[in-house]
Write a structure and sequence with these properties.
By secondary structure, this protein is an all-beta fold. The protein has two domains: 3-38 and 84-299, Thrombin, subunit H (Beta Barrel); 40-82, no CATH class. The protein contains two helices and 14 strands, in the order E-H-E-E-E-E-E-E-E-E-E-E-E-H-E-E. The protein has helices at residues 16-19, 257-260, and strands spanning 3-5, 47-59, 62-74, 88-91, 110-112, 153-154, 165-170, 173-179, 184-187, 206-209, 221-228, 248-252, 278-282, 294-299. The protein has a six-stranded antiparallel barrel with strand order 7-8-9-12-11-10. Strands 6-14-13 form a three-stranded antiparallel β-sheet, with no helix packed on it. The chain has a two-stranded antiparallel sheet with strand order 1-5.
Length: 311
């Protein structure tokens, strides 16, 4: 059994170590992870064989074991492409009134599995590989959106809550997402391909929690359903009110949250404007080429005072 987490207010720098106390993993757990492959074939299902190859590594006299899983598939139609299935769609037209949110509090809580350690700060950091220059030449034009001091930090920690963040992939490329429920991820609307094959509302999405340099410590899975308010037009820009609705929730095919934990969800309120309580975590393209996660911590945000907190 894991532990539920519920915070009514954002956790600030002064209170976060008390709110999220560090701990070691309560148990070591061998669990099942899944990975899906899609191949073209005939009416007869392909035959699958697997082989497990031990890989031993000795460091300072300590023995570490890992395993290469080799899969052979007979009955594949060569030269034919096939892709993951698309997404079933649910458009949201009504919001839950703020004064009724308490009825749903149990569904909005975070969760930490017993087999994960907790670290308020990532402990396993990595060297960043920068794709932009620290000092820019005014005579040259660079592809960058970093202004001021760049204090993003690359990490590879798999303890909670860092285990709940991961990389999404669609036809439009990779981007970032986060577990907010046992099968639910929150991610950006503009990363979804809204031009799917016939019969689907959106094209496929793959999610890999704690993705790092191709490594998948909790496995990966595909989404089956998507909840949205307004579709992005996929032109690469935030037009009109697209930035206001640049979020979607997807339901995954597997309960990865039982292994990674999840963060739950909250609505932002203007009462939190100026509160230095926020972290930005994800896979930027200009740093590590979307192959390693980074974080930036303890900044403030400013909501739109002219709009309801329901947005």
């Amino acid at each position: 059994m894991g532990a539920n987490l519920q915070y009514e207010q954002p956790v600030t720098f002064d209170s976060f170590e008390k709110a999220l106390e560090a701990r070691a993993a309560s148990e070591q757990k061998l669990a099942r992870i899944s990975k899906s492959l899609f191949v073209a074939g005939s009416e007869r299902p392909p035959e699958v064989r697997s082989e497990v190859v031990p890989v031993e590594r000795v460091v300072d006299g300590q023995r570490f074991m890992s395993y290469e899983i080799k899969v052979e598939i007979d009955g594949v139609l060569l030269g034919e492409r096939t892709f993951a299935r698309g997404l079933e769609s649910v458009q949201l037209e009504e919001r839950i009134p703020i004064d009724e949110l308490d009825k749903y509090a149990e569904y909005l809580q975070g969760y930490v599995p017993e087999h994960l350690a907790i670290d308020p700060l990532p402990q396993k950091l990595a060297r960043p590989v920068r794709r932009i220059y620290r000092q820019l030449d005014d005579a040259l034009r660079y592809n960058t959106t970093v202004f001021g001091i760049d204090n993003r930090t690359v990490f590879q920690d798999t303890s909670y809550p860092w285990s709940a963040f991961g990389r999404c992939e669609t036809n439009l490329g990779p981007f970032s997402g986060v577990m907010i429920g046992p099968r639910h991820i929150l991610t950006c609307n503009h990363g979804i391909d809204w031009t799917p094959p016939p019969g689907y509302a959106a094209d496929w999405l793959k999610f890999t929690p704690s993705y790092y340099n191709g490594n998948e410590p909790f496995g990966s899975t595909y989404a089956t359903h998507i909840y949205w308010i307004k579709k992005d037009n996929n032109d690469g820009f935030s037009n009109g009110d697209e930035d206001q609705y640049d979020y979607v929730v997807l339901v995954l095919n597997d309960r990865l949250g039982d292994y990674t934990g999840w963060l739950g969800a909250r609505r932002y309120t203007d009462d939190w404007d100026g509160l230095e309580a926020w972290w930005h975590i994800g896979y930027p393209s200009d740093l590590t080429s979307m192959e390693r996660p980074v974080y930036q911590s303890w900044f403030d945000m400013d909501g739109d005072n002219s709009q309801s907190d329901q947005h």
